[in-house]
Write a structure and sequence with these properties.
The complex is a heterodimer of chains A (333) and B (323).
Chain A lengths: L1 E5 L5 H10 L5 E6 L3 H11 L3 E2 L2 H5 L5 E4 L6 H10 L3 E4 L7 H14 L3 E3 L7 H11 L6 E7 L15 H4 L3 H17 L3 E9 L11 E8 L4 E5 L15 E6 L2 E6 L4 E5 L7 E5 L4 H14 L8 H20 L10
Parallel strand pairs in A: 1-2, 1-4, 2-3, 4-5, 5-6, 7-10
Antiparallel strand pairs in A: 7-11, 8-9, 9-10, 11-12, 13-14
Chain B lengths: L2 E4 L3 H12 L6 E3 L3 H11 L2 E3 L2 H7 L2 E4 L6 H10 L3 E5 L6 H14 L3 E4 L6 H11 L6 E10 L10 H4 L1 H18 L4 E8 L7 E8 L5 E8 L6 E9 L3 E5 L30 H15 L7 H20 L3 E2 L2
Helix pairs in contact in B: 1-9, 4-5, 5-10, 8-10
The chains are: A alpha/beta (333), B alpha/beta (323).
The complex binds nicotinamide-adenine-dinucleotide.
Chain lengths: 333, 323
C-alpha cells in the first residue's frame, strides 16, 4: 500500500512517518509541503521524497494520504485527495467550521473514499479497558467524569497552533476534541450541552485562547468536564497530560493515559528532567487500524462523524464562552 | 484559658485530641445527647455538662463542633454569655444566619473564629505564599479537588441541616480560591447525584474572574468507603504548582485493606503537625493577644455566600453572577 503525507505543518506528521514505516507492506511515497524550508528540512531529516505541491504528490496515485496540515487547510487538502481517489486519515480537529467539515463529508462520499479521524486515544489500552468497565456496568451507574487534557503552549513547536486563522482557535479547539470524542465513545451518546469559560491568561503575544474549562452534560445525564488549557510550562517534564476520572455509584476509575513513564534526568537534553513513556504509542495502533481499514475496504473505526461531533463540542465552547450560556453542540450548523 | 467543646461527635473528638497535644488542659464538654457526652467525657478527659448555660459560666472559650444547623443558636448563646467562640465551618446555613452570628459577636464585644482548617494545611499555605509573592506570575487556571465517601452521620445528607456538599465540604476550596484570587465574577456548576438512598453527591464548579482567570473546583461525597482525595494545581504565566494527596507523604501507613474505613474522611495523614492543632493554637493565641485571626469572620461569610451560589448554580444549571 502506497501512502503519502499531505503537509508537515502538524508536528504529528513526524511520528506518523515512523508509525507507517513500522507496518509491513506500507510504502511511504513522500510528503507534500508548499513551505520549502519545511520541505527541505523534513525531507533530509526523514529521508523522504518532498513534493512542492499537493497535486504533485497526488499525481503519484497514493492509495491513501494522511492530512497533517494546519487545521483550517484540512478541507482544501481533503478535497484534493478525495478527487484523486485517495483514502484519508485526517488530523484532529477535522476542521475549524461546520461548513468546512460538511464539505469534506460531501467530497469523500462523492469520491467513494474512506475518511478516518485521527483520535489516537481510542487506541490506548487504558481507555479501552475503562470503556469496557463502564459499558459492562462494573462501576454502576456513572455520575460524573472529570477530564484533563492540558499541555504546554504548542506554539513553541509550530507557531500556527496559536494563530486563529490557521488553527480555528487556541487551546480549546486544540484539546477539547480528544476528551469530547472519548466521552462520546465511552458512553455511546452525544453531548447535550456545553458551558465553557475561555480566556487567554498565559500568553499575551498570541491572538488565541490559552485556557478553557468546559462543563458538559452528556445526553445520558452524566456531568463531564474538560480542562483544555495550555497551562503547563515549557519546562514541564512532558508535553502535558490526558487524564480522566470516572466516578460511578460503585467505584471510581482514574485514568492517566501517559502515566507509564520513567523519570529521566539527562545532562544533554533540552529538558533536564523528563517523563519518558514506556507504553506502546497509541498513534501506532491508530495508524495500523487506518491501514487495515483501507486494505480491507472497510469503514474505519473512527469516522468523519466522530471528528465532526467532537469539533462541534469545541465550537460550542467558544459560543458558550462569549454568550455565557449553555450551548447544544448539535444545534451548530 | 478554659475551653468548652460543644458537640461530642467526630469534630469534637478531633479538636479534643488537638487540644491535648497543644497542652490545653481542663476541657469542658456539652452535647444534647447524654450518652455521647458521657463517652466523650471519659474518653477525652473532659468535664461533662448536660446544661449549656452552666458550661458557659465555667469556660473562657466555646468551641462549637455541633452540626451546622445548630451553629447560630449555640454561638449566639455563647456571645450573650460573654464568651469568645470558635465555630466549626461552615459558619451557618444561610448568609442571613451568618450575618446574624457576626452581628451577635460584634454587639457582645466578643470574638469569633471560624475554623477554616484548609488555611492551616502547610501545602495550601506554601502554595499561596508562592502565588502572593508573584512567583507564578499572572494566575490563569486553578484546579482544586476534595472528594470523599459520604459522611456517616445522617444530618449531613439533609441539605436543610448541613447545607449540602457545596456548603459543607466544597466551601474549603471555595474559601481557598478566594484567599488566592479574591471573589469571582460568576460561577457555573453541575451536580451529579446517586439514587435517593445512596446519598452520593458530586459537584463540578467553574469560578470565572474578570481578568480571565478561572478556578475549577471539584467536590464530592461519592467515593467508595475509605477514599479521600484532595489536590491543587495552580497555573500562572510564569510558573506552575502541582500537589495531590496521591503523592508520597513523609509517613504512609499500609493497613489491611479490609479494615473498616473511618466514618469521616479527614485529609491529615503524614503531616508534621496536624493542621487542626495549628488552627486551634492560632485561635487561642489570637484570643489571648487580641491579634487578628488568619480567617476573618467576614471571609468565612463570603466563602459561605460563594458556596451557596455554587449550589444554586448546580441546582438550576445556570450561570450565577456573584460579584
Ligand atoms: N473542619 C473539618 O475538617 C470538618 C470536618 C467534618 C465536619 N466539620 C464540621 O463540624 C461540625 C460537626 O460535624 P461532625 O462531623 O463532628 O458531626 P457529628 O454528627 O459527628 O457530631 C455532632 C455532635 O453534636 C451533637 N449535637 C447535635 N445538636 C447539638 C446541639 N444543639 N447542641 C450540642 N450538641 C449537639 C450530636 O449529638 C453529636 O454528638 C459541622 O459543622 C461540620 O460541618 C468540619
Amino acid at each position: 500500500m502506497r501512502i503519502g503525507i499531505m503537509s508537515f505543518a502538524h508536528l504529528h506528521a513526524e511520528g506518523y512517518v515512523q508509525n507507517l514505516r513500522r507496518i509491513p507492506g506500507v510504502e511511504v511515497i513522500g510528503f507534500s509541503d508548499t513551505d520549502s524550508e519545511r520541505g527541505r528540512r523534513f525531507s533530509q531529516a526523514y529521508g523522504l521524497r518532498w513534493f512542492w505541491t499537493h497535486e504533485d504528490l497526488l499525481a503519484e496515485r497514493p492509495d491513501a494520504v494522511i492530512v497533517t496540515s494546519e487545521n483550517a487547510r484540512h478541507r482544501e487538502l481533503v478535497e484534493l485527495a478525495a478527487q484523486a481517489g485517495a483514502h484519508v486519515l485526517c488530523e484532529k480537529p477535522i476542521a475549524t467550521t461546520v461548513e468546512d467539515a460538511l464539505a469534506m463529508k460531501a467530497v469523500v462520499e462523492e469520491a467513494g473514499v474512506r475518511f478516518m479521524t485521527a483520535f489516537p486515544m481510542r487506541f490506548s489500552p487504558a481507555l479501552q479497558t475503562a470503556r469496557e468497565m463502564v459499558q459492562s456496568g462494573e462501576l454502576g451507574s456513572v455520575l460524573a467524569v472529570v477530564g484533563v487534557n492540558h499541555s504546554e503552549n504548542p506554539k513553541h513547536h509550530r507557531a500556527w497552533f496559536a494563530q486563529k486563522d490557521l488553527a480555528g482557535g487556541g487551546a480549546v479547539i486544540d484539546h477539547t476534541v480528544h476528551l469530547a470524542d472519548l466521552y462520546r465513545w465511552i458512553f455511546d451518546c452525544e453531548v447535550a450541552d456545553v458551558y465553557a469559560e475561555v480566556s487567554n491568561p498565559f500568553d499575551p503575544e498570541v491572538d488565541t485562547d490559552t485556557a478553557g474549562v468546559l462543563q458538559l452534560r452528556l445526553q445520558n445525564g452524566v456531568a463531564a468536564s474538560i480542562d483544555a488549557s495550555w497551562s503547563r510550562p515549557a519546562e514541564y517534564p512532558r508535553w502535558g497530560h490526558l487524564k480522566m476520572e470516572i466516578l460511578g455509584e460503585k467505584g471510581a476509575l482514574l485514568v492517566d493515559a501517559f502515566a507509564g513513564h520513567l523519570n529521566v534526568w539527562r545532562k544533554t537534553a533540552g529538558r533536564s528532567y523528563e517523563w519518558l513513556g514506556y507504553h506502546p504509542d497509541p498513534n501506532q495502533a491508530m495508524i495500523r487500524a487506518f491501514v487495515k481499514s483501507v486494505a480491507a475496504k472497510k469503514e474505519p473505526s473512527v469516522t468523519w462523524r466522530d471528528g465532526f461531533e467532537a469539533m462541534r463540542v469545541a465550537l460550542a465552547a467558544y459560543v458558550s464562552a462569549s454568550e455565557k450560556r449553555r450551548v447544544d453542540p448539535t444545534m451548530l450548523r | 484559658m478554659r475551653v468548652g467543646i460543644v458537640g461530642a461527635g467526630t469534630m469534637g473528638r478531633v479538636h479534643a485530641a488537638a487540644y491535648r497535644r497543644i497542652g490545653v488542659e481542663g476541657l469542658a464538654a456539652y452535647d444534647v445527647d447524654p450518652v455521647k457526652l458521657a463517652d466523650f467525657a471519659s474518653e477525652e478527659g473532659a468535664e461533662p455538662f448536660t446544661d449549656y448555660p452552666k458550661m458557659l459560666a465555667e469556660v473562657d472559650v466555646v468551641d462549637v463542633c455541633a452540626p451546622t444547623f445548630a451553629h447560630q443558636q449555640l454561638a449566639e448563646q455563647a456571645f450573650a454569655a460573654g464568651r469568645d467562640v470558635i465555630l466549626e465551618k461552615p459558619l451557618a446555613l444561610s448568609v442571613a444566619q451568618g450575618e446574624q452570628i457576626l452581628r451577635a459577636a460584634r454587639e457582645s464585644g466578643r470574638r469569633l473564629f471560624v475554623a477554616m482548617v484548609v488555611r492551616f494545611f502547610p501545602q495550601y499555605r506554601r502554595a499561596r505564599e508562592l502565588v502572593s509573592r508573584g512567583e507564578l506570575g499572572r494566575i490563569g487556571v486553578v484546579r482544586l479537588k476534595r472528594v470523599s465517601f459520604p459522611p456517616a452521620a445522617a444530618w449531613f445528607r439533609d441539605p436543610a441541616k448541613s447545607g449540602g456538599m457545596p456548603v459543607d465540604l466544597m466551601i474549603h476550596d471555595l474559601d481557598y480560591a478566594r484567599w488566592l484570587l479574591g471573589g469571582p465574577r460568576r460561577v457555573f456548576a453541575r451536580m451529579s447525584r446517586g439514587d435517593r438512598a445512596s446519598a452520593l453527591e458530586h459537584v463540578q464548579a467553574t469560578l470565572a474572574y474578570d481578568d480571565g482567570a478561572m478556578v475549577f473546583v471539584e467536590g464530592g461525597w461519592a467515593y467508595p468507603p475509605g477514599y479521600f482525595r484532595t489536590s491543587l494545581d495552580i497555573a500562572g504565566d510564569k510558573g506552575l504548582i502541582e500537589w495531590s494527596s496521591d503523592q508520597p507523604v513523609p509517613l504512609d501507613t499500609l493497613l489491611p485493606k479490609d479494615a473498616p474505613p473511618p466514618k469521616l474522611g479527614l485529609p491529615m495523614a503524614g503531616l508534621e503537625e496536624n493542621p487542626y492543632e495549628t488552627e486551634l493554637r492560632h485561635a487561642l493565641s489570637a484570643f489571648d493577644s487580641g491579634e487578628p485571626f488568619a480567617v476573618a469572620p467576614q471571609e468565612a461569610l463570603e466563602a459561605l455566600r460563594l458556596a451557596i451560589a455554587v449550589r444554586e448554580s448546580a441546582l438550576s444549571e445556570s450561570v450565577v453572577e456573584v460579584a
